[in-house]
Amino acid sequence: MAGKDKEANSSNSKGKKKEVKKETGLGLSVKKDDNFGEWYSEVVVNGEMIEYYDISGCYILRPWAMSIWEIMQTFFDAEIKKMKIKNCYFPLFVSPGVLQKEKDHIEGFAPEVAWVTKSGESELEVPIAIRPTSETVMYPYFSKWIRGHRDLPLRLNQWCNVVRWEFSNPTPFIRSREFLWQEGHTAFATKEEADTEVLEILELYRRIYEEFLAVPVIKGKKSEHEKFAGGLYTTTVEAFIPNTGRAIQGATSHCLGQNFAKMFEINFENDKGEKAMVWQNSWAYTTRTIGVMIMVHGDDKGLVLPPKIASVQVIVIPVPYKDANTQGIFDACAATVKTLNESGIRAEVDSRDNYSPGWKYSHWEMKGVPLRIEIGPKDLANNQVRVVRRDNSAKIDIPMASLVEQVNDLLNDIQKNLFEVAKQKRDACIHTVNAWEEFAEALNQKKMILAPWCDEEEVEKDVKARTKGELGAAKSLCSPFDQPELPEGKLCFASGKPARKWTYWGRSY
């Protein structure tokens, strides 16, 4: 895209007509249903979300993507500040001694840790790790800062990057070697306080997905096998990608219990003068959120952005015909943008003269802008604008007199519609099963499966082993907080033992 822009802009006026013609080929070469992986790769590049970098698994986040991250960051940061959580920043580097201290925890990350072994030409005496997550970076200092019950709760968050090196199939936003996130790390005097915060944060993650990204998620608890290494329990918001039949962990909020407090000696004197260990949490969401949104809403024309997170909610395009009052049309476009901007709507005009209106339509559809406003001679004469929705291509003529009100209504409607459509598609993929045969069949049909389970780790490992194949093994996704009734005598789908809960299963990213 960038190259084409440059090429078009540098063309002389004689070549303009030819240039416009050449540019009408803008579009995707594959359909979402035909080759999802190829489609996704094209959408993130052509929609100007990312640019590939010369180190595998690392991506440049372009302003179109970064602005989405900033909108979510503004929301989340304000919410955690209301909870009296404070921002801080810890270094990127970790000494091996500290990293190895919490064995269970670091075993989960060991293959992914990147190491710095040289400085210039000289080998480092002791290699230094780059943080894959910051529990072991922060907690030695928690033990220093927490002495008595008056030092609690300690509630910190940092906005930063982390590096996780080892993996196959890097995918922009979904699986990358370096990614952006926030990570919260908190310490409390009691387990009750920690439990309360875990769920408060999880609700904020649900809101990011459902209210901002218009992606439906399921709130639940991870199994012992799937929980955060070294933690007590993990809660999650799980999303689902109908096109691939894969679930994706949207964001997690962990109660770490007292495991890390034991390792890092984070003790305090309670109000009775007794020595006690703190209860800790950690929680994070990442730029993966953006990838999930693209996968769920994108279509064969490119990105489809929910209005709440679109940096441009309305693109205004002049449509001057031969012998039309071109200046009048351009003035009307500028006035429209000004009116919308003043009312808090993020609008821009595309007044580039080296592209045809048709090419511009395709360009902004590719970038997923929620609403397009076209102004031509007829609109000018009738003191109206033509509005086209990105989500369903519906067209409507709006009088200038009620522009702001109607555009606001349309943006709200698009936001709601994107969520409803995504939820219907997701719900259509959920199958409830009771026996192994039904489970295997539903898995082959790329479903998200709700099944009664005995909650035994060996059984879960067995499910993974029995479903290993080309598409990857199935695993437990989460046990939903919203549990359907479990009839007496209900048996586990996989072991035939008495079932203890309903759990979602499926293939996952």
TrEMBL record:
E.C. numbers: 6.1.1.15
Gene Ontology MF term list: ATP binding; proline-tRNA ligase activity
GO CC, any one term: cytoplasm
Catalytic reaction annotation: tRNA(Pro) + L-proline + ATP = L-prolyl-tRNA(Pro) + AMP + diphosphate
Gene Ontology biological process terms in this record: prolyl-tRNA aminoacylation
Domain Aminoacyl-transfer RNA synthetases class-II family profile, first and last residues per copy: 91-306
Name of the molecule in the record: proline--tRNA ligase
Species of the source: Olea europaea subsp. europaea
